[in-house]
Amino acid sequence: MAKIKKLSQKKVSTVFELFAVLIGSVFGFVFTIVFAEQLQMANFKRNQMSPSSSGAIFHEVVTTEADKLTKEVRNLCWILTQPKSHYRKAVHVKNTWGKRCDKLIFMSTENDTSLGAVALDTPEGRENLWGKTKAAFRYVYEHHLEEYDWFLKADDDTYTIIENLRYMLSNYDPKFPIYFGSRLRLFYKEGILGGGSGYVLSREATRKFVEEALPNKSICKQSNQGLEDVEIAGCLLKSGVLIGDSRDSLERGRFFPLGPHIHIRGGIPQWYKKNAFYKPYAGFNDCSESAIAFHYVAPELMYWYDFLLYFVRAFGVQRQQPFPAELPPGVRGLPREVSASSWQGAKRGSTWLGASPRAVPGGKPRRPPTLTSVDPVRASLVSSRLPPRHWAGRNTPPL
Ligand SMILES: *[C@@H]1O[C@H](CO)[C@@H](O)[C@H](O)[C@H]1NC(C)=O
Ligand SMILES: *[C@@H]1O[C@H](CO)[C@@H](O)[C@H](O)[C@H]1NC(C)=O
């Protein structure tokens, strides 16, 4: 009897042991997965993804046309960052869109040669963004002004499609004082360009800003404090730098102050609806295919965007060709060679940037193709969504 009891006790304990092992391994398995994922995330955040390894993932094929623009439109990108974001945010810009700039510099308050960060001689902190921006432009002016045509300022949570930036800028002469970005109806009649999605200054605008505007206290605020995009807008305006129209030939935006998901789904916030300089569109058809910049893009998403833009393709789907025209209607490009007289013409012209169209050597001036000539089906689709013409007219600042 006692023997049987002992045996059954043994059986029970064996079953119990087995059960415990089972529970233990299931728990361990789950634990490992969760833990590994967290570890991976931490590694990701600490940049275990090296620039070279991510560079090897994507098979970017640059067409000869885009390649030509790379030589014609040389751009320097500088990214406003801070030491604590070097390996949380900045490095992911470097791994993704930043590598497509002709030159990439991170403006910080600590040197980091492996990242490419420069220590500016300004106090750190959000309240000193204006001081940092001034120092950053002084830095690019002193070290690189003649090497590049355009100088893009972006944040470490901006995502930029550099090929499209070059495409738009190829219409403008960098010797012309102009800058482009996401235009907001704030502070000045001409508006300002919001800092988050970045703005790009021509070489001449950069020169005017640093040489003429910055030292002059009746043009630029001399202290470090202030909102960088508002302050620079005032400086540039007062020193005769124009705000360019960065929309495409269908008046669709290309610099966006929010992430693409927000602009696409249409839930744009009230502040943007109220302050957008041009009509704030929402939805698929209202975002330009030649979109340039988005803001509030988390590091993980930058890899997603790179993946979708430069790697994944849908079998059998041909994208619209040719690429949509670069300029909005009524806005013409500037002659590649800007003379004093064409600059005066630009100021007096009937369209707000009414300079003569870009001269094509030995040919007729190039006119942007209309959508109807590019893609009639799409034209009818989009025209029903375009705002009435008076909207664009009403927003046109007199020059
Ligand atoms: C950063 O590097 C530059 C150039 O090497 C040097 O002149 C400067 O003193 C350094 N600044 C800091 C804060 O380390
Ligand atoms: C500073 O700017 C004002 C206003 O544009 C101008 O009248 C003045 O001559 C400038 N001062 C210097 C030193 O350039």
UniProtKB/TrEMBL annotation:
UniProt family annotation: Belongs to the glycosyltransferase 31 family. Beta3-Gal-T subfamily.
Function noted in UniProt: Glycosyltransferase that generates the core 1 O-glycan Gal-beta1-3GalNAc-alpha1-Ser/Thr (T antigen), which is a precursor for many extended O-glycans in glycoproteins.
Residues covered by region (Disordered): 343-374
One Pfam family named in its UniProt record: Fringe
Chief location bin: membrane
Reported cofactor(s): Mn(2+)
One of the record's GO molecular function terms: glycoprotein-N-acetylgalactosamine 3-beta-galactosyltransferase activity
CC annotations in GO: membrane
Localization: Membrane
Entry keyword annotation includes Manganese: yes
Name of the protein this chain belongs to: Glycoprotein-N-acetylgalactosamine 3-beta-galactosyltransferase 1
Subunit text: Homodimer; disulfide-linked.
Transmembrane segments annotated in the record for this chain: 12-36
Keywords: Disulfide bond, Glycoprotein, Glycosyltransferase, Manganese, Membrane, Metal-binding, Nucleotide-binding, Signal-anchor, Transferase, Transmembrane, Transmembrane helix
InterPro entries named among the record's database cross-references: C1GALT1/C1GALT1_chp1 (IPR026050), Fringe-like_glycosylTrfase (IPR003378)
EC number(s) reported in the record: 2.4.1.122
Membrane topology: Single-pass type II membrane protein
Residue span(s) of domain Fringe-like glycosyltransferase: 81-211
Pathway: Protein modification; protein glycosylation
